[in-house]
Amino acid sequence: MKELVEVLAQSLVDHPEEVTVIETEKDNEIVLELKVHPDDMGKVIGKQGRIAKAIRAVVKAAVSKTDKKVVVEIGH
Questions:
Q1: Residue 49: partners with Cβ closer than 8 Å, 6 or more residues away
Q2: What domains can you pick out in the chain, each with its CATH number?
Q3: CA angle (52 as vertex; 22, 39 as ends), nearest 5
Q4: How is residue 71 annotated by DSSP?
Q5: Half-sphere exposure (CA, 13 Å, Cβ side) for 76?
Q6: Residues with Cβ < 8 Å from 44, sequence gap 6 or more?
Q7: Could you tell me which residues come within 8 angstroms of residue 64 by beta carbon, excluding any fewer than 6 positions away?
Q8: How far apart are CA 23 and CA 31, in angstroms?
Q9: Which helix (H) or strand (E) holds 54?
């Protein structure tokens, strides 16, 4: 999942070298914390959060075969 979020985010931003994803797992939940350059926050979130929702939807679809919950957090 970490690689999927990295590739998606890197394709959206102006500073792909500053995209990092930290994956932590606890119980039945995977938390993916996406960090980008401050100038790229708008590109990753999108108007009214549409891009962020799309990233979350793709990740959710990718883990649908497992019984784990995935949370994507976006920060800088």
A1: none
A2: 2-75 (3.30.300.20)
A3: 75
A4: E
A5: 12
A6: 9, 12, 13, 34, 36, 51, 52, 55, 74
A7: none
A8: 6
A9: helix 50-62
State which amino acid sits at residue 75. Answer: G
Tokens 């995977």 sit on residue: 30
Residue given tokens 């926050």 in the structure block: 41
> What's the pLDDT tens digit per position in 8-53?
999 999 999 999 999 999 888 999 999 999 999 999 999 999 999 9
Q: Tally the residues of the chain.
A: 76
Phi and psi for 19 in degrees, rounded to 5? -85, 125
State pTM to two decimals. 0.88
User: Which residue is associated with the tokens 């985010």?
Assistant: 9
